[in-house]
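Standup, Tuesday
Yesterday: got the pipeline producing structure tokens again.
Today: sanity-check two examples.
Blockers: none.

Example 1:
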Amino acid sequence: MEILDGKKISNQIKEEITVEVAQMKERGEKVPHLAAVLVGNDGASLTYVGSKVRSCKKIGFESTLIHLPEETTEEDLLKQVHQLNNDPAIDGYIVQLPLPKHIDEEKVLMAVDPDKDVDGFHPTNFGKMALDMETFISATPFGIMELLKRYNVDTEGKHTVVIGRSHIVGRPISILMSQKGKPGNSTVTLAHSRTQNLKELTLQADIVISALGVPRFLKADMVKEGVTIIDVGITRVADDTKEKGYYITGDVDFDNVSKKASFITPVPGGVGPMTIAMLLKNTLLARERHNN
């Protein structure tokens, strides 16, 4: 059993980007600039955005954090989005989700310039990804593909079962895994909450990608020997015995499933760190796109 170490690979990617940025600075060129818009004070969002800002600083990117109050109106947020669209200094930006209930997320994401949409959420970018065209791929699916690639996990002709059909992870990864390429070329089954014979499907799977958000949902009796497991789930489970009052776990019963797996991602330290690394990679691509 081999651990797919997202922390290690994300650090490698960051080191590669750091070298590229240093070379840009030597040539007197503009370095990539990533902006993040955060509305309100959601704890997980604050942590995530803070991590992005620190990563930018570490690799030599410029970064801007626009932190707006919870009561910001949809109109004001859209004004901010249009400002970022028209600011030549900003190569790419993200609007951190979830947004407060009174704001229409879809309307805001639709307003983002697809050429600056480094999250890869805009329908233009999703459509290009589905058609195998050059575009920004959502950071989490992009990170999964990069992990499989760097660990030389064989996906060709394999049966991949994806659990979860979200627009951010499940649906895009199901498309990417079926496309021509390496990794890719696998036969994909997309399962979800209405799938009736899930255990039957996961027992056939060579690769299981779980993006469900249900703690320890995937048990050892649901997978076969030699399976590759990608655990995208990340849930805080309350636990008074822990210093923080909770522990982090994934969708997979790691202790038992790992005994049968040939490759498996841990939680934390698997897919999570890859998401930030690929967001930085997308920002680098955005800067190249704007310079050309």
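Example 2:
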Amino acid sequence: MAEADILDSWGGRLWRRIAQFLIVSVISLLYRVRVFGRENVPAEGPILVLCNHQSFLDPMFSQSWIRRPFLFVARETLFRGVFGRLIYSLGAIPIRQGQADIRSIRTVIESLKKGRAVCLYPEGSRTLDGRIAVIKPGFGLISRRAHAPIVPMVIDGAFECWPRTRKRPRLTGRVGVLYGKPISPDHVEQAGDEAFAEELTALLRQMHNELRAQMGRPPLDYSTPVPTDW
């Protein structure tokens, strides 16, 4: 069955609702998830959600008690076996990591043009120390082409639950999620790709420390360079 058929069929929509409820329920209980700013996520129409990347659990936290389903982009190597069929049935979009995958970018833009919500992690890979790396230019192009508002989003606590140095996640923790106010595609176009990437980096870092304050945690120091693996 084609991807569009999976997402649009009655059975596909029901399956995604059930899976979302079960996954979010378990995750919320295990990690005591607190969500802020849900009112900033539009109930309909295209939205491009851009989030920091702390762990493999991020897609589960990103969807925390938001009624409309998000589509996620996952590296192509994950679409194998039973797990691959599972994430495909949930609408995940495969992408070749470490290179410009024009096919996947087109799929994201087409999904947005159909009024869907797509969540991307613009850092490109999981954080090495919990902080947010500099965002690369290019995500503004997707917003402009699809004429989709950008919803900035941050997660805190997931890095401690499953850092890159651990093979398996800890089954306890405390995670916070914060959705920011939508940024119009007109603003993105006026800013330009380079300037908007800098603006988004600063915004996500600011939101991250705001979320940490809400969670009773000290702010992170962004005065020194954030390590990356690219």
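Quick observation on example 2: Residues 86 and 160 are 26 Å apart (CA to CA). Strands lie at 34-36, 47-51, 70-75, 93-95, 117-120, 150-156, 176-179.
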